Amino acid sequence: MTITTSRVSTTAALAASGVSCEAGTRTVLSGVDLDVRPGEVLGLIGANGTGKSTLLRVLAGVRPAAAGEVLLGGRPLHQISSRERARQIAFVAQEETAPSDLLVSELVALGRIPHARAWGGVDSASRRAVAEALRLVDLEYAAGQSMDRLSGGERRRALIARGLAQEAPVLLLDEPTNHLDIKRQLALLRLVRRLCRDRARTVVLALHDLDLAATFCDRIAVLHGGGLFAHGTPAEVLTASVLHDAFGVLATRVTHPLTGRTHLLFSHDESELHP
To answer: Where are the transmembrane segments (predicted)?
Structure first.
């Protein structure tokens, strides 16, 4: 079963048209049609190995599509120079090893390279961007520390700050909540929502936590079976049948009595589910 509620649009901030992705010599995704609308949060979900990270790399231009085309603001991504692409798309990978001898502020400043002048140097705009990025992830206290002194969660936030300092209108995050405790996870995803609402950012993020995806994403794309299995709002795609087929789990939706938000409950026993 495949659910789709939108078609690729040339007015999208970022779009994949008939995209196929390879990992090594293996095709992991094929025929992906997906659009990301300006100012929205699009979540990528799927079981391990379904191609979330690979698709994000293709959308970022880090890896070429095996077939099809990625469009950035209606322009073919492969026709855009790497410098201009880096001004338009910031990508934070799932696992990155930052040089241990860099100060946190130096790492974050690497996000300003696409904006650097030919003669080098750090201008006042870049200094402000670095300071603001550290503030947004609550890491100002560590600006002068070396990366090897940070915890795993702090390193993750520093890498995200580097992506924020890039000030690109499109932000791609691969499992951004990795290594973060629940308080930091919620703070980060609230920040993502604010960036889209207040700063006109467009965000695509891969998530494992389906409940967080349901809470913070405007739309969700489910990868399964080598392609785009379902695509729509959380209410449209996070159904018991889709979750059973894509993840092999039994789930039911419940409404929080205080917030009115919908959450997912999972079961090991099919008899525990209510119709």
So the answer is: none
Give me 190's structure tokens.
Answer: 């609230």
Give mean pLDDT, residues 14-18: 96
| N- to C-terminal Cα separation, the chain | 20
pTM for the whole structure: 0.89
Q: What is the CATH number of domain 3-238?
A: 3.40.50.300
Q: Where are the domains of the chain?
A: 3-238
Residues contacting residue 98 through CB under 8 Å, at least 6 positions apart: 107, 147, 155, 158, 159
What's the sign of the alpha-carbon dihedral 179, 182, 188, 189?
positive
Residue type, 255: T
Please name every residue paired with 46 in a beta bridge, in sequence order, or none if there are none: 223
